[in-house]
Structures are given as structure tokens and as C-alpha cells.
């Protein structure tokens, strides 16, 4: 895993999986969107907390974790459903363009 820098001004980012980190909706082999996964890595390296979340069922958590590892996407945790966060990033809330300007 990539190194993490402590940041006392850090934010918690909940990043959606299907349609945000990946190029489409729910599939068994989604392709990563590299500009987004690179931005996630940058935020992680800055000391922010990265939570990857999805509306997928908990029985798909091993798939999600395997996909993140396969594509070298750094994260602190995964959630199957929305939780508390400072900022939500998905295809329905904060736009990708706004996310890339962080």
C-alpha cells in the first residue's frame, strides 16, 4: 500500500465505485477511470481518509477489495452503503469536474 502522511486538516472522502471509479454501472469486470483513481491516490497521499463505497451487497465486498488491490487504488476502508462523510463523490452528488479541482 502507498505511504500515508498524517494531516490534521484531513477530510473523509467517500468515493463511489460503480460509475465513478469505474467506467460504467454494475458489471462483473468494470474498467477503472485512471484520472479518478489517480486523484484518489493524490488525496490519500495528502493524508485524507479514503472510503470506497457502493450500493452493492456485502457478499460482494471481497470482489470490491480485490478490484481495488488489482488496480492499486489506495483506501482506508470500504462500505456497502452511504455513511457519514465530509464530502461525497459519486456520479450523482459532487461532479467529477469539481472532484478533479480538489
Characterization of the model:
The structure is a single chain. By secondary structure, this protein is α/β, with parallel strands linked by helices. The protein has a single domain, classed as 3-Layer(aba) Sandwich (Rossmann fold), CATH 3.40.50.1000. Helices cover about 30% and strands about 20% of the residues. The chain contains four helices and four strands; from the N terminus they run E-H-H-E-H-E-E-H. Strands 3-2-1-4 form a four-stranded parallel beta sheet. Helix 3 links the parallel strand 2 and strand 3 (about 75-80). The model has no long low-confidence stretch (mean pLDDT about 85).
Distance between the termini: 22 Å
| Shape assignment | globular
Mean of residue pLDDT values: 85
Q: Give start-end ranges of low-pLDDT stretches.
A: none
Order of helices and strands: EHHEHEEH
Largest sheet: 4 strands, parallel
Spatial sequence of strands, sheet with the most strands: 3-2-1-4
Strand content: 15-25%
- Helical run tally: 4
Q: Please give the CATH class.
A: Alpha Beta
The CATH architecture comes to 3-Layer(aba) Sandwich
- Helical residues, percent: 25-40%
Radius of gyration: 13 Å
Supply the number of structural domains: 1
The CATH H-level homologous superfamily: HAD superfamily/HAD-like
Structural class: alpha/beta
* β-strand number: 4
The CATH topology name reads Rossmann fold
Amino acid at each position: 500500500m502507498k505511504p500515508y502522511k498524517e494531516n490534521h486538516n484531513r477530510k473523509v472522502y467517500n468515493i463511489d465505485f460503480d460509475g465513478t471509479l469505474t467506467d460504467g454501472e454494475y458489471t462483473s469486470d468494470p474498467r477503472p477511470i485512471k484520472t479518478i483513481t489517480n486523484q484518489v491516490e493524490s488525496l490519500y497521499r495528502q493524508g485524507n481518509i479514503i472510503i470506497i463505497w457502493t450500493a452493492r451487497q456485502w457478499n460482494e465486498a471481497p470482489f470490491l477489495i480485490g478490484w481495488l488491490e488489482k488496480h492499486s487504488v489506495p483506501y482506508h476502508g470500504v462500505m456497502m452503503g452511504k455513511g457519514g462523510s465530509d464530502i461525497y463523490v459519486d456520479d450523482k452528488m459532487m461532479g467529477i469536474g469539481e472532484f478533479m479541482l480538489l
